[in-house]
Design a protein that fits this description.
The chain is 21% helix and 25% strand. The protein contains five helices and eleven strands.
């Protein structure tokens, strides 16, 4: 597959994502500058983590108006797989591709640590190869990862199976203690109605090699690749 990795001013996990996709998983990956206006030839889009535009005004709020985002929104609405990681999740919410918002961590501190994620929800090409109830170990690195939405939106996400990852302990138990940032209902990742767009705060690109602490993040990339190849169901 050929992945477009969008780089905004202030993005910093684009190279990590490129390394894992290209050097670890053997996929084609290209960093695309935010001023580009075409995604022609790409099979998937990654909005990586970082501090786009220095997080001024509101995380993701300025990046939402970068030229490339008009094409990302159009492509996502046409069914192209799109994933937003950390700051990328914030950009997806600001762009209206996903509901809710990411606000300051409950602790008011930047949190950089390993977390456990419970795979839940209905189908998505990004999670097709991960069984419901499986637990992944993937790190977070954010100051504003506290996912919030009004009760009606949260209820709708739950009822439609659109919560794909939830913070849990290593046994898969969803507890207050396993929630690193105060996110409503321990939500760590959600999808759109169609399932092709996923936003998540944890960083799968930081869990791509055992050398760096674990490779569970690769399950997400491999899910998409296998789905495209007709392997995953």
């Amino acid at each position: 597959m050929r992945f477009a990795i969008v780089r905004f001013p202030g993005t910093w996990s684009d190279r990590d994502t490129e390394h894992v996709l290209a050097n670890v998983l053997g996929q084609e990956a290209e960093i695309v500058w935010h001023r580009e206006t075409s995604l022609a030839g790409f099979d998937a889009v990654v909005l990586p983590g970082g501090f786009s535009y220095g997080d001024y005004l509101r995380c993701g709020a300025i990046a939402r108006f970068s030229p490339i985002m008009e094409e990302v929104v159009r492509a996502a609405e046409d069914g192209l797989p799109v994933i937003g990681i950390c700051n990328g999740f914030q950009v997806l919410c600001e762009s209206g591709l996903l509901p809710g918002a990411l606000i300051r961590n409950r602790s008011l501190r930047f949190r950089c640590e390993w977390t456990h994620l419970l795979r839940e929800g209905e189908g998505s090409p990004w999670t097709a190869g991960i069984g419901k109830g499986e637990v992944l170990r993937i790190p977070i690195s954010h100051g504003e990862g506290n996912y919030q939405a009004d009760r009606a939106t949260l209820d709708e996400l739950e009822a439609a199976g659109r919560v794909v990852f939830r913070y849990c302990d290593e046994r898969g138990e969803v507890t207050p203690e396993s929630n690193p940032n105060g996110s409503a209902r321990n939500i760590a990742g959600i999808r759109n109605e169609a399932g092709n767009v996923v936003g998540m705060m944890p960083h799968p690109e930081r869990a791509g090699e055992e050398l760096t602490g674990g490779a569970d993040g690769n399950r997400i990339w491999q899910s998409l690749v296998e789905t495209a190849a007709g392997v995953a169901v």
